[in-house]
Amino acid sequence: MDKNFLLQSLKEHFGFDNFKGSQEAIIENLMEGNDTFVLMPTGGGKSLCYQLPSLLMEGTAIVISPLIALMKNQVDAMRNFSEEDAVAHFINSSLTKAAIDQVKEDILNGHCKLLYVAPESLTKQENIDFLRTVKISFFAIDEAHCISEWGHDFRPEYRRIRDIINEIGERPIIALTATATVKVQNDIMKNLGINKKETKIFKTSFNRPNLYYEVRQKTDNIDRDIIKYIKQHPGKSGIIYCLSRKKVEELAEVLCANNIKARAYHAGMESQQRAENQDAFLKEDIDVIVATIAFGMGIDKPDVRYVIHYDMPKSLEGYYQETGRAGRDGGEGECIAFYSDRDLIRLEKFMTGKPIAEQEIGRMLLKETQAYAETSMCRRKALLHYFGEDYKDDSCGNCDNCRKPHKHVDAKELLCAVIETVLALKEKFKSEYVVTILLGTRTDEVTSYGHDKLECFGSGNDEKASVWNAVIRQAIVAKYLVRDIDTYGQLKVTAAGKRFLNNPKPFSIVMELDEDEIDDNEETEIKGAGACAAADEALYNMLKDLRKKVAKRLDIPPYTIFQDPSLEAMATTYPISIEELQNIPGVGAGKAKKFGDEFCALIKRHVEENEIERPEDLRVRTIANKSKIKVSIIQAIDRKIALDDLAQSYNMDFSEFLDELETIIASGTSIDINYFLEEILDQDSIQEIFDFFKQEQENTIESAYKEFGKDFKEEEIRLVRIKFLSEVAN
What we know:
By secondary structure, the chain is α/β, with parallel strands linked by helices. It is built from 33 helices and 17 strands. The strands form 4 sheets. Strands 3-4-2-5-6-1-7 form a 7-stranded parallel sheet, with helices on both faces.
């Protein structure tokens, strides 16, 4: 094929002087009539790989795309490149019959070179019959990972694409995705009937060196942290991803209340509202879009400067694709994820009721996400390894782990112990079970297999579980071990691992420094290492002392007065009146009136004595609680309606409903749930858990669950905590 012709066509239709990466080779391969598989990171220029050939080849190219919003965006983009609006069309459920008839007419007249269709529209017999009469140049399957059950965004309707193509008439296929592990890649090719030996696979490096990766511990103060971050990046575009539609709407509202130009986006909104919000973001009428994963596929906005994950996603593929929307122009892009193991536990609970195979796949993907979030090694190296790419350097210099202090530990003997244990277990168990054996923890599963009789049982009980997990994770990256995907993550020893066992050599792993190992003079900032987040640390310490004094006087735990994040906010924004105190996260009207006078007086005295100019612009404003749902929940509880029935009536799972109750309590409102508690727990059990919270200095479900997890469900513990906070703190 004449390369000059392709370059001239690129310049003529798209205005570019040169192709990017492997675009030219991909286009040549497709135009020669060959099936083509493209693995290219977000921002690599996948769309051009089928857009340009569609203009140059005879007939109409059919692009199968998962989202209506994505189709509209790409059709608009193609029309902007062409003088003829009919050059690109889409067919989906948003069009009227008259509009669809016009699309068909433009196709039959040869004006339409690119037709976008949703897989649901493609399955309609009338569309199949029509396309059989059309000259088709090729089929493009965009976001091809949707085909695979191992992919992060599996769509069952994608599995029928091959059968429909056969019915319409065979033409070359180009499958494109920004994320695919080897397992997903094989699944896509198998399902599309693409011959692996004959099909050319184009794989671009998944490394995006301009992106900075960071994982922060998720706290009750996350909204304030996000607001503070956004205000430190004024005027810059950003995306915030949340797992639930409810949280999307709440967070968007909070951002707007704090003078941040933001809107929400999720699949439950009216399509017109979604389109308006998306356009407002693309046109820079707003700075921030708060969204579920429904937003972003194919959104070609080059200057997104940050992507924040409010919740860790269900898979690393989803995480990679979503973070990939930052810095597509090669400029700065910060990827901040907030991590809590409770979020992952909740996601795992959501899988209950699904087919066993689907649950196993989901759990394995969550384990990979957890390993990434908790690792101390270079995040870029860990991420690229997941996609089958070997990142040679030990440090990328552009992630949180590479920027903070580490220690390198020789784990040669530890790795030998891991390999010996995996082999002793016949390579039939997952990493968490291997750690259980090394620690010598007797469980029903361990004793039923007789594994407590193994020589390796308890051989590693002088190390923490976190150390063994780090050894396993980094041994997988070093290719001494491998997780077998076909058996949902069982650990296997590679040939290199067996050679290592026979002839051990130094094996260095990266570990986080303990607090007592950190040099006080170390200039590197250690994010999330327990340091005070208050702007005025002296005031913060004074407030803590006052809280302790008041707690002692009232004979209640300090955290029931104000939690640490609230004190940090006070020591940042200096509220000096009860009204201002109610603007602090975690401080409702009741709590402010009950405990606020002494704290406001202390802050006012500190401000006057030190001539502090209060930063009004930093104050995080909370939304007045006018939520009809919250009001109706409180009223229903007053009428003693069963809480599980209430959750069902609001279409919430029970855990999500308890989140609502905790929010109500945090706002300073008291509720009486004794009528429900006494139905599910006896009085002695309630009192035992209640007394634990009264004596415990840390207000965490985790500490209570460690104490009572064998005897009580997490929901029961949370309910008693709600009772406790309502009666003692409000």
